[in-house]
């Protein structure tokens, strides 16, 4: 196996992990935001 091929695969996995992390963080932030708004409204 070539080093460049392995490196490309590693970078792809890391990039996918970052996308996943940001998606999860965005969802949590959205849920927390709506939850806080629900708490603040009478």
TrEMBL record:
Record keywords, A-Z: Membrane, Transmembrane, Transmembrane helix
Transmembrane segments: 20-40
Superkingdom of origin: Bacteria
Keyword Transmembrane helix carried by entry: yes
The protein, known as: DUF3265 domain-containing protein
Organism: Vibrio aquaticus
